[in-house]
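Predicting holo structure, zinc ion bound.
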Amino acid sequence: MSDEKKERSIEEIGDDLVKAIELQVERVVNQYVGQEVTDELVEAMTLKLVSELEDMAKEIKPSIKPPKIKCIGCGQLIKHLYVPSEEPHRDCWSAAIVSKIFAGFGACYETNEYLIGICDMCVEHNVQLGRLILVKEGT
Ligand SMILES: [Zn+2]
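Done. Tokens:
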């Protein structure tokens, strides 16, 4: 067993899994908000959740370690929420945005790709300062 795995207890890993599953439940529920509650709807939601969890399970590869990424605003380490995938920008991160940014033509680093993280507190602060622009509000 590697040192990385010894750092986390089974309980901590379980807590992360619960959070990841809660996020999936929330996503599925949001897709059905406003609809009339029927047995068919509950069945459809359940099947959708199972499908989402199966997709999540397919992405899990225990050998992959999440990148250590710090908030670009305050420098705090952003916590990865469950077993990482090969695409960290699509993973669940605790109270933060982790995304990929691309350097377009004209930039000194044109065509480079970067992984960037910003915690929720810094998102709010930087939106107020106009340094971060909300392009689309989520559901
Ligand atoms: Zn921050």
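The helical segments are 3-6, 10-32, 39-59, 120-129.
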